[in-house]
Specification:
- With 169 residues, this protein is mostly helical.
- It is built from five helices and no strands.
- The protein is flat and about 60 Å long.
- The N and C termini lie far apart (62 Å).
Length: 169
């Protein structure tokens, strides 16, 4: 027995994105080997992407038919913003973007240290000294494992790298 449920904030947006991703995956899997044969390299990915597209379309239609319950007299956009894109999520996304940029300029070590400390603060830990200490310990452990066990050279950064001691490069 299926019971209908009210549409959640962002649910229709997610379903539309799922359908668009399914179309993209179907197209890219088709480009692997067209429809040459059932044993072609792109056949299985095409079947999976097609199944994902069909089920995505079915769910998108069901979701579009469901009624959206607006709470506290909010508009659709206000409810979407409050439930789907809270400030903490946006801030963390910006932090990840800055971390990716920072790695190129200030290197893995400094960018990771700042990212770890700031993400702990952003996620609720207000004990700054503890955050800085844990970030340092985790980064030292990562550095030792990657440099000694895996022999991976971590990016030094274009601004900081030339000034680092040799063992940190």
């Amino acid at each position: 027995m299926h019971t209908s449920h009210p549409r959640l904030a962002g649910e229709l947006t997610f379903m539309v994105l799922l359908v668009l991703v399914s179309v993209f995956l179907l197209w890219t899997s088709y480009q692997i080997s067209s429809l040459d044969s059932l044993a072609a390299p792109g056949s299985f990915p095409m079947v999976c992407a097609f199944a994902m597209l069909v089920t995505g379309l079915i769910n998108a239609v069901k979701t579009a038919r469901a009624r959206l319950n607006l709470e506290n007299g909010e508009t659709r956009l206000q409810q979407f913003g409050r439930k789907v894109t809270p400030v903490q999520l946006i801030a963390f996304t910006v932090l990840i973007f800055l971390y990716m940029l920072g790695m190129e300029y200030i290197g893995f070590l400094l960018a990771s240290y700042l990212f770890l400390a700031m993400s702990m603060y952003l996620l609720g830990s207000r004990r700054v000294l503890l955050n800085l200490t844990i970030s340092l310990l985790v980064l030292v452990a990562i550095f030792v494992v990657f440099r000694t066990a895996f022999s991976v050279v971590l990016p030094a950064g274009s601004l900081v790298g030339p000034h680092l001691p040799g063992f940190l490069r």
